[in-house]
Design goal:
This protein is mainly α and 203 residues long. Helix content is 56%, strand content 11%. It has a three-stranded mixed sheet with strand order 1-2-3, covered by helices on one side. The longest helix is centred in the N-terminal third of the chain and has 28 residues. It is elongated and about 85 Å long.
Length: 203
């Protein structure tokens, strides 16, 4: 077998502007009248379908190889394409949890804690406690929404809120007090001052 020719590879930094440029070009084509623009868009759509099917077959094959599927979904570009073609093997809740887990070290470095509260009706509820004030908290909330939607674009909303306050602790001593303790104390003090009572009620 002959040697394979050297092919220039693109890292994530190089891929991002190309995807942005592609989106811009497709937007221009959609606004351009005429049969030529329609044919170009149709060609892109067919090409996307074919590549999507090829990627689905790759994931099917990788499912039988231990660790191979995990390596595919760990790759940022492949994860984006799997989500785009709706063939990502992980369910929605697992992807949202993965987004939260990936954010946790970064947020802790900024004095914040994050947790997934739950999913309901295509809305993810995220708990975020940030020590920073002002715009810092808003920036962190935007970061969380962007990250979660990157992993789960089918969500209709990401609700980022402060955690619910912990229930107030009741002092142990209060458990031994009767609700009418004030009146009871006065009564007991008066009783003590009157001296011991006989069985017939006389002092």
């Amino acid at each position: 077998m002959g040697e394979q020719p050297d092919i220039e590879r693109l890292d994530d930094v190089a891929v991002e502007p190309r995807l942005a440029r592609l989106d811009a070009m497709l937007g221009q084509l959609e606004q351009t009248p005429g049969r030529t623009a329609e044919l170009a868009l149709e060609a892109v759509e067919i090409l996307t379908e074919v590549y999507g099917e090829a990627l689905a077959r790759v994931t099917d094959l990788a499912a039988d190889a231990p660790g191979a599927l995990d390596r595919l979904i760990d790759d940022e570009l492949l994860r984006h394409l799997l989500l785009l073609h709706r063939i990502h093997p992980d369910p929605l809740e697992r992807r949202v949890a993965r987004a939260v887990d990936d954010l946790r070290p970064q947020l802790r470095a900024q004095g914040a804690e994050i947790a997934l509260v739950g999913l309901q009706d295509e809305v993810a509820t995220i708990s975020l406690s940030a020590s920073s004030c002002g715009g810092g908290g808003a920036a962190l909330r935007d970061l969380v929404r962007e990250q979660v939607l990157t992993f789960a674009p089918e969500l209709s909303a990401v609700d980022v809120a402060a955690p619910a306050p912990a229930p107030a602790l009741i002092p142990v001593a209060a458990l031994w007090q009767r609700p009418d303790r004030t009146g009871g104390t006065a009564t007991s003090e008066a009783a003590r001052g009157a001296g011991p009572l006989a069985l017939d009620g006389t002092a």
